[in-house]
Amino acid sequence: MTGLRERKKQQTHDALSEAAIALFLERGFDEVSVADIAAAADVSKPTLFKYFATKQDLVMHRIADHRHEAARLVEASSEPPVETLAAHFRAGLDERQPTTGLNDHPQMLAYHNLVFSTSALATRLREFMDDDERALAVVLGGGLDAELLAAQLLSTQRILAYRNWLAISGGQSASKRYSAALDEANAAFARIRPLG
Amino acid sequence: MTGLRERKKQQTHDALSEAAIALFLERGFDEVSVADIAAAADVSKPTLFKYFATKQDLVMHRIADHRHEAARLVEASSEPPVETLAAHFRAGLDERQPTTGLNDHPQMLAYHNLVFSTSALATRLREFMDDDERALAVVLGGGLDAELLAAQLLSTQRILAYRNWLAISGGQSASKRYSAALDEANAAFARIRPLG
DNA sequence: TCAAAAGATTAACTCGGTCAATCTTTTGCC
DNA sequence: GGCAAAAGATTGACCGAGTTAATCTTTTGA
């Protein structure tokens, strides 16, 4: 039984998120108050904060879906961690997945632009990545080497994705960038010395 | 001429920082309001914010002195970057420098404990490190390899320092930890593949 | 000694986030 | 189908961080 209540909750959730992102893209994150958003979605401010813990989460919850992804992938795979994540990143490039930065859909571009150029959001993104790093280190077995490797793997993904976003953001198409992106990914992952 | 004005500014600055840290250590960062601190230092709230841009900075300005240190060291040295930073870290261990985590003075321990266990402060620390990373990447010549190396170097320092702090925080003396700290530093820096 | 500049103060304000009390809606049960 | 209880939303007041503008005091340099 998919309760009516559930559906209304989902609706309110989506209405808030969509209203928020629309307003943020239009006026900028810092120039929109949570009161504006609550009003746009026809709910009260306390209600808004029942759905999203912080103003930032109105934007970041989309990315939050990928939390601990690296740890999950490594845990689920029988291949060595570096290979697993390198292969996954390459596949992401192929599929133009937003997490690789290689996506030139105008909405995605605008969304990423919002995140990267708003310091409160960039900071929150970094908090997510720190979390991912801790989770990955655990899956890698813990200890100094695991922590170092986890940090290096996630730094690598972050830097590759950011460089791709920069290129796309500079006007290059995803297809045009693809070849360089793949080269960079191969070079970057090749620099990583595996565990053991 | 060291103006009277300058001296008073310095006094107010120190009074604020000391009052703040004392109160934070006593009651916890989130349980002290900036109004409390301003009152303790006998100034008004707007005056406090002329000296420190944020509540966090009342704590973090001490660490902020070391900003861009890695970039400065590498720029000033004629040795290869990895050697330079590894040597500097080892020297820091010898001297029990707080940045290495290997310092068991009760005040230092309490201070680090405050920073690491207060999420607002840990977040601000991470912002500093991101800044350091960008600066280091520039000094390393920019480009993919420089960015990857900068990230790896600073991750390495962060992880080593945190592990040392954990050990000290768990009751071990700095002297007792020293040998393991040195071994870990050597192992960690040895994992790093230099540029070129 | 005095004019000008620097700095501090007060008071009021914005905004993010929380809380407590009240009211509405949904749901599960008879 | 109707109803009690629980879940959720609303309102309004509140807190704390940080800002702003107007006023006042102090330092400075001529």
What labels describe this entry?
mainly alpha, 196 residues, DNA-binding, homodimer, globular
Q: Can you describe what's shown?
A:
Two copies of one chain form a homodimer. Helices cover 73% and strands 0% of the residues of chain A. With 196 residues, chain A is mostly helical. Chain A is globular, with a radius of gyration of 19 Å. Chain A binds a DNA duplex (30 and 30 nucleotides) through α1 and α3.
Task: Provide a compact summary of the structure.
With 196 residues, the first copy, chain A, is mainly alpha-helical.
Describe the sheet with the most strands of chain A: none
Low-confidence stretches of chain A: none
Give the overall form of chain A: globular
- Most extensive protein-chain contact, per-chain counts: A-B, 20 and 20 residues
Query: Helix count of chain A?
Result: 10
Q: Roughly what percent helix of chain A?
A: over 70%
Oligomer: homodimer
Alpha-carbon distance between the termini of chain A? 50 Å
Radius of gyration of chain A: 19 Å
Mean pLDDT of chain A: 93
The number of strands of chain A is 0
Q: What is the chain-wise order of helices and strands of chain A?
A: HHHHHHHHHH
**Share of residues in strands of chain A:** under 5%
